[in-house]
Design goal:
The two termini are about 55 Å apart. The protein folds into 4 domains: about 70 residues, Arc Repressor Mutant, subunit A (Orthogonal Bundle); about 35 residues, no CATH class; about 70 residues, SH3 type barrels (Roll), CATH 2.30.30; about 100 residues, Alpha-Beta Plaits (2-Layer Sandwich), CATH 3.30.70. Helices cover about 45% and strands about 25% of the residues. By secondary structure, it is of the alpha+beta class. The strands form 4 sheets. It has a 5-stranded antiparallel β-sheet, covered by helices on one side. The chain has a 4-stranded antiparallel β-sheet with strand order 12-13-11-14. A hairpin with a 4-residue loop joins strand 4 and strand 5.
């Protein structure tokens, strides 16, 4: 029984290797199977007899994922053509930032033999929505973002907004949402359709841009801080956060002044606590209070762990 189980695991590993979308040499497959080339050819023959379409091109082998055996397995979870295109379009939105989304997208394309239709359709929709948002901004008009897909609520609904700023090379749009009375960032790729409404902005005084600080925290508020850094602290800050260089001015041979804005005190407090005797806070009483509270919490946690 143990030998049969081990053989099954090796055969399964071989099948997974041969459907990964790449071709493999006989030597590579024999290593996966843990056997000789002669026995590998025997196994490949058995796989063909079981309904696997083993393709041999030059020196490389792979299994066509449209093989009858795999098709029978997939029938229980098969998607309609419309469902495939929908899933593919959603994966396209995240493929550039999520390795997993990119991997699933490629598998979907291989299994369903997708043409470039979905890509072309998606790019056309993206172009049209971006153009309409641009028009709305220039004319200061309210728009409806139809069928906006929210990754947080896992829902799809319409959003009535006042768009006023593109972000990230027109990947996102910053807009004031009328219902929530909040400024939000919307991914253009998640918008089904943009409709320009014949209503001018009436909340322009509430529009707020999104600010991202050097610690990659984003928010609407800007908290101004001013620090005196030793040479060591200066070098380490430049090394960890290259964008901080433009916020530095030399005070003397041994000190630098850092002056800039942050969204919150989380990032800068971590840096200060790591170099507490190399940094002096020149401005911002709230930052001092934040650090004191953080130190007290650290002390309490230390005492609790020692008990």
């Amino acid at each position: 029984m143990k030998n049969n189980s081990a053989r099954f695991e090796r055969w399964f590993a071989l099948i997974l290797t041969m459907i990964d979308g790449r071709g493999h040499t006989a030597k590579e497959l024999a290593e996966v199977l843990g056997t000789t080339l002669r026995n590998l050819y025997y196994v490949l023959g058995r796989l063909r007899g079981m309904g696997f379409n083993v393709v041999h091109e030059g020196t490389l082998y792979h299994i066509d994922i449209r093989s009858p055996f795999l098709r029978r397995i997939a029938e229980a979870i098969d998607f309609t053509e419309d469902e495939v295109v929908f899933l593919h379009s959603r994966l396209l939105e995240d493929a550039s930032t999520s390795p997993m989304a990119g991997s699933i997208k490629r598998k979907l394309e291989r299994f369903y033999n997708l043409t470039s239709y979905a890509d072309v359709h998606f790019q056309q929709r993206l172009y049209e929505n971006t153009s309409l948002l641009e028009q709305a901004m220039s004319s200061r008009r309210v728009v409806i973002l139809h069928d906006y897909s929210s990754p947080h609520s896992h829902s799809m609904n319409d959003r009535v907004v006042e768009p006023f700023l593109f972000l990230g090379d027109k990947v996102d749009v910053r807009a004031y949402e009328l219902k929530s009375r909040q400024n939000k960032t919307f991914k253009i790729a998640r918008i089904g359709r943009v409709e320009i409404v014949d209503t001018p902005w009436f909340n322009e005084d509430k529009h707020r841009e999104m600010f991202t600080d050097m610690f990659m925290f984003s928010g609407e508020q800007k908290l101004h801080i001013k620090l005196r850094l030793s040479l060591l602290a200066h070098h380490l800050m430049i090394e960890e956060y290259p964008h901080s260089g433009k916020l530095m001015t030399r005070e003397d041979d041994n000190h630098w002044i850092f002056e800039g804005d942050v969204v919150n005190y989380v990032g800068i407090s971590r840096f200060i606590l790591g170099l507490f005797d190399e940094i002096e806070i020149l401005e911002n009483a709230e930052l001092r209070h934040f650090l004191r509270a953080k130190i007290e919490r650290m002390k309490l946690r230390r005492r609790a762990s020692d008990m």
